[in-house]
Amino acid sequence: MSLKIRTAIVAVLAAASLMLAGCATTQSPLENHNDVEGKLVVAPVMPDYKVEVTLAKLNEILSAVELTNEQRARFHYDRGVIYDSVGLRLLARIDFMQALKLQPDLADAYNFLGIYYTQEGDYDSAYEAFDGVLELSPNYDYAYLNRGIALYYGDRNDLAVKDMQAFYAGDNKDGYRALWLYLIQSKDNVTEAKRQLQEHRQGLEADAWSTVIVDHYLGLKSRDDVFAAAKSGLTHPKEYAERLCEAYFYLAKMAIETKQYQDAANYLRLALATNIYDFVEHRYARIELAKVKGLLEEAK
Q1: Residue 87: CB partners within 8 Å, gap ≥ 6?
Q2: Which long-range contacts does 84-88 make (Cβ < 8 Å, 24+ apart)?
Q3: How far is the C-alpha of 267 from the C-alpha of 131, rounded, in Å?
Q4: Which residues contact 244 (CB under 8 A, 6 or more apart)?
Q5: For residue 198, what is the enclosing H or E element?
Q6: Rounded distance between C-alpha atoms, residue 192 and residue 190, angstroms
């Protein structure tokens, strides 16, 4: 491989890495927001032009450069991750499948396919995909989260709890892990789940954004406190939209718990409207919305 081609590949990989780590948006989500029925609304995040440039370079390399199977698999995977981040799930899936044909032991690709199977309600295929991830990489932390969520939506809550406990044990200072463990446990026993959440709260960082949501679940902070905290300490333009995506989802889950189904539906629609496609809260907001719509129909 020539030095020019090798340099181009390194440059594209570096650019892709920056994209996946988080990029500036063409329109700041701090702009053009207002208050609707007491809920903050954020302008949907639009893809950065740099994403399009990176995709164009990846397309060129995949079509014009001679690569080893491992290199080609990695480029398909990287392009799939970018497609996923902008909501092009079908194109992402095709790339992940192609990557696995070239490199069958690519655990990351199986993880994405498992997520897609969960979103489609094909839980058996999701379990198989996540089992494959953990066989290939036993310490793949987020496979426990994703398999636990699949088990949760697949009504196998006893196994879901075990996976979420394993995920929480991986970092007990992470408020998101404490929240997901609560959500899974509360399906069986809300009182005990809340008792454990109170216990887990003691180990969380007091000033972390995720801790604010935990405190709301524990009745220590109001909804207004959550939205105020979402605007505090932002480090990049996309972060406000990301926080609102999370806030809307977890507020919706609380509204479902208290049987405020219309509020839950509104929050879930707002979560989807943020366009933060690669966040777990956005991925499963559509499943939750379908369930809430069913509950609203039953209530008529």
Answers
A1: 275, 277
A2: 84/112, 84/277, 84/278, 85/19, 85/20, 85/51, 85/277, 85/278, 86/47, 86/51, 86/277, 87/275, 87/277
A3: 32
A4: 29, 40, 42, 227, 230, 270, 271, 274
A5: helix 190-201
A6: 6
The percent helix, strand, coil of the chain (3-state, each to 5) is 70, 0, 25
And the tokens for 145? 């989260």
CB 272 within 8 A of CB 137: no
Torsion of CA 65, 67, 70, 73, to 10 degrees: 30
Query: At which residue do the structure tokens 């700041």 appear?
Result: 28
CB-CB neighbours of 116 under 10 Å:
19
pTM of the model: 0.84
By residue count, the chain amounts to: 300
Looking up tokens 């719509």, which residue turns up? 293
pLDDT tens-digit map of 155-171: 999 999 999 999 999 99
- The 10 Å Cβ neighbour count of residue 206 is 8
Secondary structure letter of residue 45 according to DSSP = P
- Cα 157 from Cα 186, distance rounded (Å): 10
Q: Tens of pLDDT along 225-283?
A: 999 999 999 998 889 999 999 999 999 999 999 999 999 999 999 999 999 999 999 99
* C-alpha gyration radius of the chain: 20
